[in-house]
């Protein structure tokens, strides 16, 4: 089963839609912070697009998603990047997401061989969470003017460390771990292609058109 959490009025095609407000596309009405009314080991893919920043307790929700997911299920999260003034100023956002986030979602962190790096967290110990999500893919979506292909990857890496308002959103693909798994298998999984939110289509088309123009 594929599940779209916080689907609103634009549920992903072929997904079971969950939202706290009833609507034509909503199959299950619930507050995910109070639990998700599905059996254990039900979901093989979970989409959470632009919804997790609004919840009160991220650990509770991630525990519920972990519970309803099968071993090696894929969880895709699209979220606002923490270091952007427009997101920092939003009083509705209660959770923050950046390159460090995946290190807080597991007691056995795995760094995918490609894509942005999740830096080590110095000084403060990372508590082992009550769930285990291993990162397979992480992608940053830059805001104007840094989305311009004239910027090199190395330049962007330095810019986002030195200043805010460089990245607008961040997307992760995690796999749910409930049994032993090797780094070799995680490496193979990290090279796969996984579904992503439909809302990214326009962004990717716009970026493609700009590159062709240049």
TrEMBL record:
* Superkingdom of origin organism: Bacteria
Boundaries of each Methyltransferase type domain copy? Answer: 28-71
Short name of one Pfam family: Methyltransf_11
Supply the Gene3D superfamilies for this chain: Vaccinia Virus protein VP39 (3.40.50.150)
What is the designated name of this protein?
Methyltransferase type 11 domain-containing protein
Q: Which organism is it from?
A: Paenibacillus pseudetheri
